[in-house]
Design a protein that fits this description.
alpha+beta, RNA Polymerase Alpha Subunit, Chain A, domain 2, 5 domains, 7-stranded mixed β-sheet, 7 helices, 31 strands
Length: 459
């Protein structure tokens, strides 16, 4: 009976629980649905906002700027900076500024440039690298003659950086009192390669030929010469220009000193002096046996030379040597360069083409060629040939028939060279030549010396 009653109570409790669950299930479902709708709404709102940001040009640019700023600060203020880590860098060739009385004293021993090491934040170091007015001060103000040890002081550096001079933070400086000395000036033409080579420059005329030099006694003693540097680039006519004056030591190095005046006026005449001379081809070596050169035809027979007049006065022809051993055919064609004579600025022809023909060699004797005297001083000596018959000689000539037929006694010269003779009877050398350089000349019998007698004019 008791068991039946217990079973009836349990059954009624389970039924009641089931009814409560059934009653609350619709409420739970509605709650879940409401929460889900809220999340969907928020997600759609955020998505729409992002779309507006990304699709709008102005908002997207602002967004990109914000990201760039964040990245910049993220890179420059890294974990190392946040921890206070300092960095260093070497800066090269920082100029030195000397503070002293340059009118009265000369200073030596100060380096023109030095290297420094800077320490600090990397941002400050990078800014310093782009700074161009930084220097090192060597302050000698108030000091007189003597030797001193001076510390170089950094100037115009970033105030956030620690700056130290490498190698020579302190320098040994020597101060010497200046003196004044007078020097004559010479001249030097510069940039002559930038003017046409056919022009010749005259000796310049200066408004002053002397300058004053202020320097220490040792520096003045080292000066070998003082020059005015005259710029000739592009000059084609007479000109007047300011020429900078410089001093050189005995090794040809520039001397650092005060020159008064620093520039002088120079007037230079520009001329185009020229001379036309023949081009003469000279065979060198032996042509093949039994043959001689018959003719040489050139595409240019004369050349115009441009040079100062004294140089042109010494030049009567331009010679071109050819190797006679290469003349192996009856007709030979060559192209060759012409060497510019010493002292000549330029010439109108630098290369020629030629045709050389050869033919069989024959010989001929030209009789009674008169003998002349050369290299003598008739104010000191009188001279005569010992054998009167030597006053005229026969000459054997060799060449092609065409060339020999054109040679006469008037085309041949025999000279007695008296350059090295003394008073008394002695031998003097004979020199034989002719107007046609394609012909060989030889005194009959192979004679190369002659007996002469020399007496003084007072005897």
């Amino acid at each position: 009976m008791a068991k039946d009653k217990k079973k009836k109570i349990d059954s009624s409790e389970k039924l009641e629980i089931a009814q409560r669950i059934a009653a609350t299930s619709p409420n739970a479902a509605r709650t879940y649905a409401t929460i889900e709708n809220v999340f969907v709404y928020i997600s759609r709102g955020i998505s729409g906002l992002l779309n507006k940001i990304l699709m709008s040009p102005s908002i997207s640019k602002l967004f990109a700027l914000i990201l760039a700023v964040l990245m910049y600060f993220g890179v420059n203020y890294s974990s190392s900076s946040a921890l206070g880590v300092r960095q260093s860098a070497v800066l090269n060739n920082i100029p030195t500024v000397i503070v002293y009385n340059s009118e009265m004293y000369e200073v030596s021993g100060v380096p023109e440039y030095s290297d420094v090491i800077v320490t600090g934040d990397m941002t400050d170091i990078n800014l310093q690298k782009n700074q161009t007015n930084s220097n090192l001060i060597c302050d000698l103000s108030g000091l007189t003659e003597g030797s001193y040890t001076i510390k170089l002081t950094p100037s115009n550096f970033n105030s956030q950086l620690e700056v130290n001079v490498l190698n020579n933070p302190s320098v040994n400086v020597t101060i010497k009192k200046k003196m004044t000395s007078k020097f004559n000036i010479s001249y030097e033409f510069i940039n002559t390669n930038q003017m046409a080579s056919k022009y010749t420059l005259s000796e310049p005329v200066f408004d002053t030929t002397e300058v004053l030099i202020r320097a220490s006694e040792d520096t003045i003693s080292s000066i070998s010469f003082v020059k005015a540097l005259i710029d000739t680039s592009g000059k084609t006519a007479d000109f007047t220009t300011e020429a900078r004056v410089v001093a050189y030591d005995y090794n040809g190095s520039l001397v650092n000193c005060d020159i008064i005046p620093e520039k002088v006026n120079a007037t230079v005449a520009v001329t185009e002096v020229s001379k036309e001379v023949p081009i003469i081809v000279r065979p060198v070596g032996e042509i093949m046996e039994g043959y001689a050169i018959d003719s040489i035809d050139l595409d240019y027979s004369v050349v115009t030379l441009y040079a100062p007049q004294p140089i042109l006065n010494l030049i009567d022809a331009v010679y071109v040597n050819i190797d006679a051993t290469q003349l192996t055919n009856t007709s030979n064609v060559f192209a060759t360069n012409i060497d510019i004579p010493s002292g000549v600025n330029s010439m109108s022809v630098t290369k020629i083409n030629m045709e050389i023909t050869v033919d069989k060699q024959v010989s001929k004797t030209v009789n009674d060629v008169r003998v002349s005297w050369i290299n003598y001083d008739d104010t000191k000596f009188r001279f005569k040939v010992v054998n009167p018959e030597d006053a005229e000689m026969d000459v054997v000539i060799y060449g092609t028939q065409k060339n020999l037929d054109a040679v006469t006694a008037n085309d041949i010269t025999i000279n007695i060279d008296l350059a090295n003779v003394v008073v008394g009877q002695q031998q003097a050398p004979l020199i034989v030549s002719g107007t046609n350089n394609l012909v060989k000349y030889e005194i009959y019998g192979g004679k190369t010396y002659i007996e002469v007698e020399i007496v003084g004019v007072d005897q």
